[in-house]
Each structure stands twice: as structure tokens, then as C-alpha cells.
Amino acid sequence: MPELPEVETVVRSLAPLLTGRRISSASFNSRFVTPGDRGKLASRLAGRTIQGVRRRGKFILIALDSGTLAVHLGMTGKLLMDGTPGAHTHGIFVLDEGVLLYDDSRQFGRVEWGAKRAERLGPEPLEISVEEFCSRLRRRKARLKTLLLNQAFLAGVGNIYADEALFAAGIHPLALSSRLSRARAEALHRAIQDILSAAIEHRGSSISDYVDAQGERGGFQLLHCAYGREGEPCVKCGTPIRKIVVAQRGTHFCPRCQKR
DNA sequence: CTTAATGTTCCCCA
DNA sequence: TTGGGGAACATTAA
Predict the structure, then answer these.
(1) For residue A123, what are the CA distances in angstroms to A91, A148, A168, A234, A238?
(2) What integer is the mean pLDDT of A24-43?
(3) From the CA of A113, how many Å to the C1' of B10?
(4) pLDDT in tens, A180-200
């Protein structure tokens, strides 16, 4: 469910509901979502007060009066305020007002103590300057699609927005970063910021079952130009969108607008 | 029954 | 050290 725009939407819907709340108790039941000592995590959380909620890359960082709780939604994770626990509920946070649930059918997400993993991320795509972006691109010689998915290179872009940004910039997903012209690198920087900003405005993309903390779907999926449009006409030139596999991920592009 | 799915990590090889 | 390829993790839906 979650790339930067979806996580940002969850954070924005969650922050006003969680800030100032006290965690009465917490419980976890998945050895995948909460690896290690789940009881220890629960006892660390009990009695803590939530001071704020923010996003770093695809991580949701919940600042406590002592320590930080990090949540990564993986592929199908959801944080739901006052939802109904079900077969895929793997975390329950009982608050002084309300209950927060962590649901995750595939269990690729993580709920963990501390922001250790979030510290190893690359720069935020909405904050990085053109100069810095171009300089980082020049230092690498990987395929653009692979590089955009690399969270240590740039934090928060996932499969949908990598395809959408490359489409908007007119760059082939297999193009090499080291050989990208300055003009095309700048176009990519702009495309990434434009696409992510627009997606946040539309509250993310709901392609299967993504919803924010209040169960609301996003609307950006209606504006996708490449992702999920295999065989459909390119919105710019009418050529059928092609789908290939890059870095084990479905990759959609227009063979005419995105030359190698 | 097979395949693919908004993600990340780990291992092997060049 | 960097990059490519593949497997693994668990579940659902087409």
C-alpha cells in the first residue's frame, strides 16, 4: 500500500489524533511484524505519551516522551484509528482515548523500537536540491528504475511513483544514471517532486486496498499515466504502454516517449 | 494451479 | 564498493 505519498497521508491523518495521547497498553502477535521480544516492546510502550508523528522515507516515526516507535507498512500494512480487529490485526495500541490497530495481511511491514533503520535512508525527494540530486545521480551507474527504488539513494519513492516520475520526465527505466544529460537529470528531479506533490494532494494512490488511518481511500490512481496501464494508450502519444520487469518489479513505460 | 501484488533484505557472482 | 539477479518472507486475488 505505501509509498511516500500514502505514508505522508497516513501521518497527516494520524498526527492530530495521536499527539498528546497516552498509550495505556500495547500488544503484538506476529513474529514477522514484530521480530524479537514482542513482550519487551509492549512493556516499553505502556505508559508512554505520544509527542508527535512524522514521516521519514516510508517510515512512520512516532515520538514518545522517551524513545521512538517506528512503523513501516511494507506492502499491505495499515494503521487504523478505532477500527475493528480482524484476522490480520498484528498490533493493538490501547490509548487513553481510542484504539490504534496495526493490520497487515502479508506481514511485510514492521513495528519496531527506535529509528535505527530510518537513519540509513537517502535524502528526502521533496527536500533535495537539483544540484545535490544531479550530483548523486552522476556518482552512480545503475539503471534509473533500480536507483529510484533504492531507499539509500532516495527515500520514499516506490514502484508506482518511480514509473510515474520516469514517464513524466520521458526517461527509459533502463537508462543509466551516469549517462543521463544534465537537462534530463533536472527534468527527473522536477518530475519526482511534481508527481509526489500531486499524489499527496490527492491523498495517495489506492490501487487495491490502501486507506489512511481513518479508512479513507486516495484518489491519485485515477491520474496514473504509466503504472498499471499496460496495453493502454500513452496519454501523450497514443502508443500502447509496455510492461517489462526490472529489479523484479513490474515496470511500465511508453516505448515512444521514453527512449533509451 | 499459476502469477503478480504500493517492499526490503540477504546471498551469490561479476 | 558497486551492480545485477534471484530467493525469501506471508497472503490474497485474478
Answers:
(1) 30, 12, 21, 31, 35
(2) 97
(3) 22
(4) 999 999 999 999 999 999 999
Scanning every strand, the nucleotide with its C1' closest to A120's CA turns out to be: B8
The residue among A158, A155, A140, A139 whose CA lies nearest residue A249 is A158
* A193 burial via Cβ count (<10 Å: 0-12, 13-18, 19+): middle
Catalytic residues of A: 2-3, 58, 249
Q: With a 7 Å cutoff on the CB, does A142 touch strand B?
A: no
Q: Which three cell numbers stand for residue A42?
A: 509492549
The predicted structure's pLDDT at residue A194: 98
Nucleic strand C near CB of residue A107 (< 7 Å): yes
pTM: 0.97
Strand A110-113: give its sheet, edge to edge.
Answer: A50-56, A59-64, A68-72, A110-113
Location of C-alpha cell 512512520: A60
Q: Which nucleotides along chain B are within 7 A of a protein C-beta? A: 4-9
Burial of A208 (0-12, 13-18, 19+ CB in 10 A): exposed
In tens, the pLDDT along A196-254 reads 999 999 999 998 778 888 989 999 999 999 999 999 999 999 999 999 999 999 999 99
In 3D, which of A63, A59, A64, A81 has the Cα closest to residue A13? A81
The C-alpha cell that represents A50 in the structure block: 505520544
Distances (CA, A) of A213 to A16, A39, A79: 11, 25, 5
Residues 181-210 of A with CB within 7 A of strand B: 204-210
The position carrying cell 516510508 is: A58
Q: Is A29 exposed, middle or buried (0-12, 13-18, 19+ CB in 10 A)?
A: exposed
